[in-house]
Design brief:
502 residues, alpha/beta, Aldehyde Dehydrogenase, Chain A, domain 1, Aldehyde Dehydrogenase, Chain A, domain 2, 2 domains, 7-stranded mixed β-sheet, 6-stranded mixed β-sheet, 22 strands, MeMal-semiAld_DH, EC 1.2.1.27, methylmalonate-semialdehyde dehydrogenase (acylating, NAD) activity
Amino acid sequence: MTRDDLPRIPLLINGEFVQSRTTEWRDVINPATQQRLARVPMATPEEVEAAIAAAREAFKTWRKTPIGQRARIFLKYQQLIRDNIKSLAATLTAEQGKTLADAEGDVFRGLEVVEHAAGIGLLQMGERAHNVAGGVDTYTLLQPLGVCAGITPFNFPAMIPLWMFPMAIACGNTFVLKPSEQDPMVTMRLVELALEAGIPKGVLNVVHGGEPVVNALCDHADIKAVSFVGSTRVGTLVHDRATRAGKRVQCMMGAKNHAIVLPDAHKDQTLNALAGAAFGAAGQRCMAVSVAVLVGAARDWLPDLVEKARGLSVGAGDSATTDVGPLISCAARDRVEALIARGVEEGATLALDGRLPPLSGQLKEGNFVGPTIFSGVKPGMTIYDQEIFGPVLCVAEAATLDEAIALINANPNGNGTALFTQSGAAARRFEDEIDVGQVGINVPIPVPVPMFSFTGSRASKLGDLGPYGRQVVLFYTQTKTVTARWFDDASTGGVNTTISLK
Ligand code: NAD
């Protein structure tokens, strides 16, 4: 198939899927085989402008649409996603690489947010205090902001778009989504289903592209809020740019997630959890465990951990026997391999080397790195200081729980962390003293379910409110506080020149 024969991914503007008029396209590639799947446009400035204008126009009526009517769209949407989950997962695996079971999990964790959006009637309620002064009542309205924008990363192309547009739209906003240009196909299928569920024209729009499109969204006066998920470098740029333009901004960014293992932990469960959380999705999860801190006698568990990791099968995500799929791109593989070489140069011990896993046929072309484990890792080494975003687990050691907590608190990132133990007292001390926004107790990847919010912290996040859950309702709405007095007779207390309400 020549490039010209490949499917061209459309934009969505004002309810119509339209072909971009751009001259700049990039290929969407199956990372297990390098097979080209589709072409994605880098939208022109006029197309970005048209998407924003459609969203601005649609807001005029969507903001007045009754809350029950908005909620029912998401009731239908969740059913459509559920009915299509297998084919959504297959598309996701083809363009992103993760295993089919994990791709289904990616869709499912987004589906949970859609289910929650269907409960918007309860979530968007204001507060009311009766008779705060004589005959005076005070109450709040949570009103939609206007046009909101979402910029999403490659690693969860179903879940993360679904963190954003369903809740923004359920709150009465309209939306412009900019998916990752590396794997936009499953996102577009989810957008098609959203229209099928009844999202009116102009309420959801999609533009594709890279830096120029993102900058245009950050700068545009008609966009009131920007949600971003991606790397710390880009998130910081987006935050600074969009904040300067006067918008609300929330950026969920990079990570270095540590798991502490105490010697009283259940050994087999702990090692299974560590291997799954370090190497699942080829380590390309913002909540992947990338550092294991073995405390005291748990230091002796390293050989068993290495054996667990060695037993994982590397291959294409659409094979039922695969545990670890490819990295997203050749550039990502080269970067991870270079970091592994750097780890060796800087004195860490390469306990398991996953470079050049033995694969045959077309998979030889894929971006594969197998499970890799370094021991003796310390702050100051590049493999510790940087987010590797690959199937590489750094193992560090600590004499006590307090020493391990101090190590984590000294790391700038604050996305996720976990403790493995059977001691309630240790767990309680850990949850109290650890300075990380999402804490797992014997749970390696503690991503909260949608009745809570995603609560990464410190260098992993910019902006105050997290995605989904109650926090995002506050992010996507303006709280308006009304103080009202209704006179029930003609009596007057005269002119009041003080600040007091009487
Ligand atoms: P990325 O930052 O490269 O890309 C994210 C988005 O920004 C994409 O839509 C991309 O097109 C756009 N972009 C890229 N370069 C840009 C630039 N110079 N200016 C403006 N926009 C630009 O991230 P990625 O590689 O797609 O995703 C992986 C990263 O995302 C990892 O660091 C991971 O930890 C992070 N992540 C964080 C969370 C979280 O919740 N904290 C969740 C998922 C992923």
